[in-house]
Amino acid sequence: MSKLFSDIVGTFGINPNVMNATNKPKEKIRIMLIEDHHVLRGGLRMLIDAQSDMTVISEAGDGETALTTLEAGQYPDILLSDLNMPGMDGFTLFERIQALALDTKIIAFSMINNNKHVERAFQLGCLGYLTKSIESEELLFGIRQVAAGKRYVCSDIIDAIVPGLKNSQLANSDSDIGQQEFSSRELEVLELIALGMTNAQMSDKLFLSRRTIEGYRQSLLDKTGSINTAVLVKYAVLNGLIK
């Protein structure tokens, strides 16, 4: 059973640290869930609805039902969709959505993490690709990144498609983390990065120049050996650097 699945099924116990990850914005991210596994879909809904900046507005167990909902005029900000479903699968659904020219951002959500599936998903208009083995914190982070108009590929995909990355750049042993020292300001910037803030937003919030923020971001990447923000956030979560 994946870490994400174990987080949200069973008794549906949710980590309280995940629940209040962000301050409440003016408008919530409206999400449609498409997942044929009823228990997982229900758990995802509870996890997402527990966030102050997200809400599930509709859900479906297959692509045909989802398409009918979209054609009826219910447009979410984010569509989080499984790929392997009965009837119309995720890829076919993405093709149909492209034809509708909707202003909905799509995230593929699958057990499969091979390069071909990732490439096809992005070719069909997806802005994100998440695997079902990721932790709940990264799932939420990925949704926020895509909602902000950014592309996001989860760290599991990076592990799979970049040879040796897991051993060389994601090896976060206790001895490694113990050797790293982070200033209070670096940790503050790290928290804001995990919330999906841009350099400009962090600059305004912390009353620092954008160049200074960029310096802190690069320092965090260098210290953790991370190649991008996704890997940095995974490092921070695994090592308890962010709540």
Spans where pLDDT lies below 50 across 5 or more residues? 9-22, 163-179
Name the assembly state.
single chain
Instruction: Give the CATH architecture of the largest domain.
Output: 3-Layer(aba) Sandwich
Number of domains: 2
Level-1 CATH class name of the largest domain: Alpha Beta
Based on Cα principal axes, name the global outline: elongated
What distance lies between the first and last C-alpha atoms, to the nearest angstrom?
Answer: 24 Å
Global Rg: 18 Å
Tell me the CATH superfamily of the largest domain. Answer: Response regulator
Estimated share of beta-strand residues: 5-15%
Coarse structural class:
alpha/beta
The count of helical stretches stands at 14
Keywords:
about 240 residues; Rossmann fold; Arc Repressor Mutant, subunit A; 2 domains; six-stranded parallel sheet
What do these coordinates show?
The chain has 243 residues and is of the alpha/beta class. The protein folds into 2 domains: 3-161, 3-Layer(aba) Sandwich (Rossmann fold); 169-238, Arc Repressor Mutant, subunit A, CATH 1.10.10.10. 51% of the residues lie in helices and 13% in strands. The protein is built from 14 helices and 6 strands. It has helices at residues 3-8, 16-19, 38-49, 63-71, 90-100, 115-123, 136-147, 155-161, 165-168, 174-179, 184-194, 199-206, 210-224, 229-238, and strands at residues 29-34, 54-60, 78-82, 105-110, 126-131, 152-153. It has a 6-stranded parallel sheet with strand order 2-1-3-4-5-6, with helices on both faces. Helix 12 (199-206) crosses helix 13 (210-224). The protein starts with a helix and ends in a 5-residue tail after the last helix. Residues 9-22 and 163-179 have low confidence and may be disordered.
